[in-house]
Amino acid sequence: MPDAERIPSELDQLVDRDPEETAEWAASLDAVTREAGPHRAAYLMRRTLEHAGRTGLALPPLVETEYVNTIPTAAEPDFPGDEEMERRITAWNRWNAAAMVTRASRLGVGGHIATYASAAWLYEVGFQHFFRGKESAEAPGSGDQLYLQGHASPGIYARAFLEGRLTEAQLDNFRQEAGGNGLPSYPHPRRLPWLWEFPTVSMGLGPLSAIYQARFNRYLAGRGIKDTSGSHVWAFLGDGEMDEPESTAALALAAREELDNLTFVVNCNLQRLDGPVRANFKVVQELEAQFRAAGWNVIKTLWGSAWDELFALDTTGALVRRLRQVPDAQFQTYAARDASYVREHFFGADPALAEMARLLTDAKIDECFGTSRGGHEPRKVYAAYRAALAHEGAPTVILAQTVKGHTLGRGFESKNANHQMKKLSVDEFRDMRDRLGLPIPDSAFDGGTVPYGHPGPDSPEVRYLAERRAALGGPAPARRTHPVPALPEPSERAFQALQKGSGKQEMATTMAFVRLVKELMRDRETGRRWVPIVPDEARTFGMESLFPSAGIYSPKGQTYEPVDRDQLMYYKEARDGQILNEGITEAGAMADFIAAATSYATHGEPMIPFYIFYSMFGWQRTGDQMWQLADQLGRGFVVGATAGRTTLTGEGLQHADGHSHLIAATNPASLNYDPAFAYEIAVIVRDGLRRMYGPEPEDVFYYLTVYNEPTVQPPMPEGVEEGILRGLYRFREGTPAAPDAPRIQLLASGTAIHWALDAQRLLADDWGVTADVWSATSWSELRRDALSCDAAQLKGEDRTPYVTRVLQGAPGPVLAVSDWMRAVPDQISPWVEQDWSSLGTDGFGLSDTREAARRHFGVDAESIAVAALDRLARRGEVKRQTVREAAERYGLA
Q1: Calpha distance 647→643 (Å, rounded)
Q2: Sign of the C-alpha dihedral, residues 787, 789, 792, 793?
Q3: Which of 432, 468, 475, 401 is nearest to 97 (CA)?
Q4: Model confidence at 790: pLDDT above 60
Q5: Is residue 477 reached through a cis peptide bond, with omega within 30 degrees of 0 on the bond before it?
Q6: CA 789 – CA 304 distance, rounded (Å)
Q7: Which residues of 797-835 are buried (b: 16+ CB within 10 A; e: fewer)?
Q8: Does the record's keyword annotation contain Oxidoreductase (predicted)?
């Protein structure tokens, strides 16, 4: 191949000691391929590598390349911008980021400086040349999706200040949100909804979500909802963050589905929060191997242009070998020490390197080892980004090496403690000013306060910045907060089927929910917007009927004949499939849900996701993502199926959920319901569609728990809709056996209402006690209403909690029961005026029949009846002996 046509190689930057010998090796390989075929040639290559490994030859494995830049300097494309202008813009942003955090540190609220200092050019090159805004012609209404590293947020605020999107007063409110005008510490859409799209702290959730966001973009396109081909997902990560399991959990998915609309940019400053990421190893090489093995395209941008002279002098390969040998912690030390130390400890390790060092000045060594990194040079960053966008068929990761704390001075750069260092002194700022070349006079520091810097709204820098963003489609990051059109209400028919009851047929509430959604997915107007999400247990939840009708999304369609093709409910995959069946990954399914639940903002396309899962594996396993969902203002239905601690027979402790409602109650955006009947589900889902997708949509999501216990579903009584939505209504009033019969109120949620109804009968028939049975659809909504009333009372308003008002005058004590631990119903006890007690399933779950498990926890009908008699005995309304007799009769004594 002529040199002009040959693809540049990273090896081009290494000196070839004998090009003729190299050519002979290549010719030999070509000859074998020609004479014996490519398989023989590949076999010989593998044998050679195997032999090299056995003999101790220092060759990296196939998943690694040398510790050099993937793109040689000679192969870098021309830089399209004004590099000097962009240097000045970046300098202003570096200054203001550091000034903002330092000024805030006076109040003790903290902040992070070193991360953005190392990554500034990684962001600035993107903002100036790559990141598309919402008005982009290539990606209208969507733009690119930017998952920005949380600890770098001061730099993003500084850029928004330079653009005029933030004021000095807002910068001075960094991390001071209580007054309502502050800037959140990290990317938080709920706190700053016009700027941030994606929350990226907790660490690890950003990369996981970025992968599923890129995948969801393809899903929208595949289903014909929106053309997202112009959108690209960028995830900016720290090398320390890659230790989080979620950071690498879905790498294979991204490669398998060829998500070339996704780029990871890993800022490899070799430091995490307390010290080196891989003190005795090399994190860049480790990450390269991990990503290459998963099928990603890997671009390493490690060394700045100052290193070109050193590589040119490396005629023996000693420099490349030494770079591969030196562990990260030692290289960090080189970056922080002077040239004499580097000469002795780096170059002195090899005679060839010692000879090379004699040709280098101290200034050159200081530059190379102290600051010259690929991530600090806009031309190298630009080349990497352009190569990433040009690569087809796989996602790309850019491993960009930087110095943590770059430009902040010797007191910060490469120091182990720099993540915890929150401020610079005035003298350090003066040094930084001189280093960055900013026109800030000494008088600006009078009084000891560090000033913000701005070249002026009409300055060449601000005009250049505005022109670049206009060319790319508007500001970024930016979140669209204007309302999307309300979705039309589905037809009555879908809800009426559940409201009529099931007649004599038994039906579990899990099946009732699935039937409702299946009917709603047929709706002509909104049906295509439903996104069913399930982590590989669709058949457990009775969803297999959706397979042939809705199809399972796959970018490749169905390239095989399914084994059950001759059956009615066969396994059908399709490019336009509606179901996201993620395999055994609740974290992946939850990331799917977040992408779909926020599509109304990300793409201007409201989608209605419902994610159904074993209730034990929701809030307990992916609770951090539930908070991420709330933070990102997601909307949709989260459904904990096979709920309760005694309802899922035989599965035992690990599957027995008796606490998810307690965890869910802590999340302010989650509306939590534990419906007992199919008609309650119909009312709740209908209300959810109105609240989340109606004319005035709310940034909430619904958590419903449904059960796998088939029972006859009654028709909906009249006038109960408000009680269902508020959390409590009287389902069945007891018939007094006598005018003076003792009376008690039984409050029950979910499947426990059936035990309460049986207890109602036992109390009446065996003991002459009248019990009213109430359906408590939401303990947490009752509590939130009560807390709101309490807060109003403190402001002088006269408001009575709903639970107090609806139970007012109800005779006798109140006994609450559920398939949850007692703390779940106990949430409302302060606002119940009657004597309060509760029963629940506290403790670990266990395997047994439902009857035995309920007897074990003391929540079956007989246990409820005895507990009710005990409550009445304490009030003197029945004899104490009656309690003992009942316990003996029911086998509880």
Answers
A1: 7
A2: negative
A3: 432
A4: yes
A5: yes
A6: 62
A7: eeeebbbbebbeebebbbbbbbbbbbbbbbbbeebbebe
A8: yes
Residue for token pair 């074998």: 32
**Nearest partner of 119 among 159, 84, 85, judged by Cα:** 159
Cα(152)–Cα(149) distance, integer angstroms: 6
Q: What is the mean pLDDT of residues 580-601?
A: 96
The answer to whether residues 393 and 258 touch, using CB atoms and an 8 Å cutoff, is yes
Find the helix packing angle between 492-499 and 509-520, rounded to 10°. 160
Sheet containing 396-401, strands listed edge to edge, beginning at the edge strand earlier in sequence? 145-147, 233-238, 262-268, 396-401, 297-301
Residue type, 110: G
Task: Please state, in angstroms and rounded to a whole number, the distance separating the CA atoms of residues 744 and 767.
Answer: 12
In whole angstroms, give the CA distance from residue 166 to residue 382: 27
Sign of CA dihedral 332, 334, 336, 341: positive
Total Cβ atoms within 10 A of residue 879: 12
Dihedral sign (CA 432, 435, 441, 443): positive
Q: How many residues does the chain have?
A: 893
Would you say 287 and 65 are in contact if contact means Cβ atoms under 8 Å apart?
no
87-132 confidence digits (pLDDT tens):
999 999 999 999 999 999 888 887 888 899 999 999 999 999 999 9
| Pairwise CA distance, residues 784 & 329, whole Å | 51
Per the CB < 8 A criterion, the answer to whether 655 and 648 are in contact is yes
pLDDT in tens, 850-870: 999 999 999 999 999 999 999
Coil vs helix vs strand at 639:
strand
pLDDT tens profile 179-223: 888 999 999 999 999 999 999 998 999 999 999 999 999 999 999
Residue 427 burial by CB count (10 A; 0-12/13-18/19+): exposed, middle or buried?
Answer: exposed
Question: 676 is written with which tokens?
Answer: 């007992």
